[in-house]
Amino acid sequence: MSFLLPLIPDLLPMIMPSSVHIAKAENMVAVPAPRAASPQPVNGTNGEETETGVVQKDAVVHKSDKMCARGEYYSLTETKKIRQLMAWLVVVAKPKSSSSVHHYGEHDAIIYAVSGPGFLLTHSGDEDAEPKRNELSAGDFAFVPPWTEHQMVNETDNDITWVVIQSASEPLQVDLTEWGGAELKHAK
Q1: What are the pLDDT digits (tens) for 137-162?
Q2: For residue 43, what is the DSSP state?
Q3: Which residue, of 47, 114, 117, 167, has the greatest Cβ tally within 10 A?
Q4: Tens digits of per-residue pLDDT, 120-135?
Q5: For the segment 73-100, what is each residue's pLDDT rounded down to a tens digit?
Q6: What topology is assigned to 16-28+47-176 in CATH?
Q7: Helices H / strands E in the chain, number of each
Q8: Pairwise CA distance, residues 21 & 108, whole Å
């Protein structure tokens, strides 16, 4: 029976799914940025600590043990290291369109809305429940746990752009025939 222990982290999200977390841009609270010590006096500071000019806002923190998101930018020198740990996708939804119903398998995902508004429909797994409509506007984040069925919907007359970051080095998307449906087989 102990041979099943290593499988628990992979099986548990399928049995007891987590909930989707939405972080609206207007509700994010600034986290104090580290202060930089000025090596030489700047504007009469006499070398005391000065503000860095960077505001950081926690968006998706403590929702996954594999990833998090903060409203800040990373330098180009850090990008290679980050890309080895996570898969990044840029999704552009054309006007009046929607994606297939899908999930990302065992991957956690963070979605960042570059533009919007758009809707992230999520399903709790309850057959009788309707999908929940989560509006994502520019600057909003969404955390999507493993195996969570969802759909991206653009009801506007403009393109919307979202960045999807998965907790893997290669993206995975499992398209479904419908909510709770079978895996859609793609022609090769």
Answers
A1: 999 999 999 999 999 999 999 999 89
A2: T
A3: 167
A4: 999 877 778 899 999 9
A5: 333 344 444 444 556 777 888 999 999 9
A6: Jelly Rolls (2.60.120)
A7: 2, 16
A8: 12
Is the model's pTM score more than 0.90? no
Q: Residue 101, class by beta-carbon neighbours within 10 Å (0-12 exposed, 13-18 middle, 19+ buried)?
A: buried
Phi then psi dihedrals of residue 85, to 5 deg = -100, -25
CB contact set of 142 (below 8 Å; sequence gap of 6+): 20, 21, 22, 23, 60, 110, 111, 113, 120, 134, 136
DSSP states along 101-160 = EEE-TT--EEEEESS--EEEEE--S-TTSPPEEEEE-TT-EEEE-TT--EEEEE-SSS-E
d(CA 51, CA 54): 8
Residue 171 contacts residue 127 (beta carbons within 8 Å)? no
**Tokens standing for 134?**
């989560």
Residue spans of the domains in the chain: they are: 16-28+47-176
Hunting for tokens 């999704």 — which residue is that?
Answer: 91
